[in-house]
Amino acid sequence: MLVRPTVVAPPVIVADSTIKPRPAVISPAPVAYPVKTGSYIPAATTTGTNTDSTTAVRPSLNAKSADPNKKRPKKKTVIRSAGGQTWEDDSLLTWDPNDFRIFCGDLGNEVTDDLLGKAFSKYKSFLKAHVVRDKRSLKTKGYGFVSFKDPNDFVKAMKEMNGKYIGNRPVKLRKSTWKDRNVDARKRKPY
């Protein structure tokens, strides 16, 4: 068990010959940490006076984690490319890969995912709505996406909702080109 020494500062003598004591810094009572069971074994203590082996532990390798042939599951990502840059985008994993997606432009800062979803929820195959926000300020970047399962609802929503007010502004709808930005989709295109 480790014990911190008690530190007491000497008194300060002020010019008018009065002695003012400094506040003393006193360490808290020693804390004994519990020993974890399982893959931890107690270590030998270094001092001869302390025979309590619960205060120091040494980790040992677990046989399962030491197996070099064991493959770890890879995290799924989507590799994207646009503007001459390539990056991994995990946010596309929350969307259905076989959906029909609409780009919603000119959204105001008051538009949320729920408000955008309510505007398009009248269509039966509506799946998800998302407003893209700045990571730091949390203000909207002025656009979002809405996805549908049925292509007929997709076309119907494009015709009916283009120019309708969502929040304080009329929305501008376009077909989303998110599939064209995927690297694997670009490699399949014959050039």
UniProtKB/TrEMBL annotation:
Gene3D superfamilies listed in its UniProt record = 3.30.70.330
Pfam families, per this entry?
RRM_1
Question: Which InterPro entries does this entry report, sorted A to Z?
Answer: Nucleotide-bd_a/b_plait_sf (IPR012677), RBD_domain_sf (IPR035979), RBM42_RBP45_47-like (IPR050825), RBM42_RRM (IPR034215), RRM_dom (IPR000504)
GO terms, molecular function: mRNA binding
Domain annotation RRM: ranges: 100-178
Annotated region (Disordered) at 44-82
- N-terminal signal peptide: none
Q: What are the entry keywords?
A: RNA-binding
For whether the record's keyword set contains RNA-binding, the answer is yes
- Matching SUPFAM superfamilies: RNA-binding domain, RBD
Matches recorded under SMART domains:
RRM
Could you tell me where the Low complexity compositional bias lies?
Answer: 44-56
| Database matches in PANTHER family | RNA-BINDING PROTEIN 42, TRNA SELENOCYSTEINE 1-ASSOCIATED PROTEIN 1-RELATED-RELATED
Q: Tell me the protein's name.
A: RNA-binding domain-containing protein
Upper lineage? Eukaryota, Fungi, Fungi incertae sedis, Chytridiomycota, Chytridiomycota incertae sedis
